[in-house]
Fold these 2 entries.
Entry 1:
Amino acid sequence: MVSLAVVILTHNEERHIGRAIDAVRPLAKEILIVDSGSTDRTIEIARSKGAVVLLNPWTNYSRQFQWALDNGSITADWIMRLDADEVIEDKLASEIADKLDKLPRDVVGVNLKRKHIFLGRWIRFGGRYPLILTRIWRRGSGRIEDRWMDEHIIVSGGRTITFEHPFSDQNLNDIGFFTDKHNKYATREAVDVLIKKHSLFEGDDQILQDRSSIQASLKRFIKEKIYNNIPFQFSSFGYFIFRYFFQLGLLDGREGLIYHFLQGGWYRFLVGAKVYEFDLELRALTSIEEKRKVLAKLSGLKLDLSAPKVEHVRPSTN
């Protein structure tokens, strides 16, 4: 066991939460679950496995996770972000146990490699492995971006390193769940695009200056500066072709075809279509306040209509 706190957000995750906790329980000093109102056995399972469970109403992933950091009374030296459907595999668990508490003080973040399992198959191609994400950081040296979608951990006060072994993202639900989830993701991503386009709120784009994960910074830059400026009917189709043929997604077999088409084609088209749909309404308006209200109504999201200015203070390393 190392001085590590694992933070997991949940809502009706009874299929996954026990598996996630079991994988980190021999490793972590603290396991913190922040639940947003599960009606299944998620909370019961988490408590039975020794996790601390806190309840907080849902706004979005970013604000829920930051609430966990601010209110979770974490005492461990290191914090890990983990989704309920993700699993820390044995080799990575051993690497964390062997290395984490021995890292020099100038290391404040650890990047991990995520591998995606879809319909039981590891999706190795199409640019999907390795996805390098900052998932472990020293307490007090990290915060999460304030965004509706594609939020990353931002660390400061030192350098980051990358561990060798991966963790897996393996959701056990069916394709209907996958498409429903990505439909909701598409709404959130469209909202982020339109917030930036119409300057509706103060943006949080610190990942573009952050170097903890160069891969994440580069992908954000390409998406916002290039991809989003191409008409969606061309960009979404082109992205799927690039991923499936040029990045060899076709080598992922039948499962890969389903995944790359849905996640790399259909989902990207859906985001573009929602941006277009919502923007038709916003373009007719002149008031920022009115645009905020209309976007909140169209998206069904709890946008902060008062839009107070947020100071993005870089966290202390003390």
Entry 2:
Amino acid sequence: MLASLVTVLALTLASAPPSPQDPSTPSCRSFNSQTACGYGCKTDSNRAQCAKTPQGRCQVVDGQAVCFDPPAYVVKAYGDALPEVQCKAIDGVVACGYNCVTQPGRVKCAKSPAGVCRALAGEVQCFDPPAVVFAVYGKETPRADCRTNSLELACGYNCQNTSEGVRCSKTPMGVCKAANGRLTCFDPSPAALCAWKRALPAPECRNGESGPVCGYACTTAFSKSGCASTPAGVCKVFDSEVACFDPPVEQKADAECLASLGLAALDGATP
């Protein structure tokens, strides 16, 4: 009787489906004499693939195992609210990420939920906000946009589609201005964004001999214009020339914000 129970138990355990892999626990898989280790591993008919981070995801799409890992600054910004990634395939090409777009034989995805992808003339272009935008806005980072004039495609923020062309700033705090046959975009530096964060004033633009000039404390004299790069900067007129100077804003910048961008805080910076 006991022997029969042991036999039944052994058969039951042998026939039970394997327990699902915990995506937060690293593991290894071996296939075709190749071993892959990481998170959420998947295997296709040729190989095994694993994500490199717990937030990464692997899927088998169109018969191909593919993995995607969001950048560390994106993971930090969204935390537990990080949306799930998507994967798309076309004509044997597979890609994973966010807001994916396909064209015949091509597929691309943004690296962040705030990123965007657009297609033009059979090509796909993607844009993701730089790391400093996520450091300032966190999971409230605004979604980027794209503009096109059928010949050019530009993606980012505050996009301008004018007779001079199509341009976008790289940050929500940036600005683009068209004048005198030129289209200019300006973005505050990462150090300035870490110093003023969301309180950063909007930059202004002035028209100069060679086109628009944008920034702060802008000054114009004798058809020449100049702007400082930060709100702490200053511009003065000397002998019909405009001279501008910016103090080192790293002294005002948040040290954690700078560190997240791989920038060093100057002595005397606020903790």
